[in-house]
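Entry 14. Ran structure prediction on the chain below.
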Amino acid sequence: MPAIQSSRCPRCGAARAAQAPPLDLCPACLLATALSMGDEPCPYQVLAPIGEGSSGLTYLAQALESARGYVALKVLGPRDDADAVLSRYRRWKPALASVQHPSVAKLVDIGLTAEGHLYVASEYVAGWSLAVLGSRASVGRPERVEIARQLTGAIDAAHAAGVVHLKLDASKVKISTANGPHATILGLGSSLIVDGADGEPDVDRIALARIIRDFGSEL
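Output, structure tokens:
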């Protein structure tokens, strides 16, 4: 059996398994970077880690300007295209701001940490992932239909502003049940800016139809 190859974190030298997410820094170093962000230019204080993906770690953070509240702060590994990402953010910012729908989480800010790592700050949304909630028999048909209606309205509002999601799936939808079911789409516009990829509205519609089908609702 061939040995499992590993790479090393360029900051601390810790070994990382080949199957680990392809981050240049190990999770511990990304966390240390995030925790050091009380200094300018990043205006957020990290409170706790809440997730890890293939491109970075996400934290619950609080804006140092209290009026901006809590955000989901994703810190990305080192990139050579930071200037291009910031340029795309400036270009897309007016379109994203024009998406006014209660089921769309706002992209708050994109910038650089004191160490030069890109961060993406989005409106923090509490609740269950639709990918988890959809398997629960306790969620009745009326609630499922209402969630489908909200998601359809959110995508229509985004498309009207010229914005597509690109990576829409059930894991990118949060559901709150505090005052009846409320669906919120996460990450709208992030891939357009960070990945620099274009997309077609039909891709969103196909993804949404798949989500609704799997969730057991019909429009």
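The CA atoms of residues 75 and 119 lie 4 Å apart. Will compare against last week's run tomorrow.
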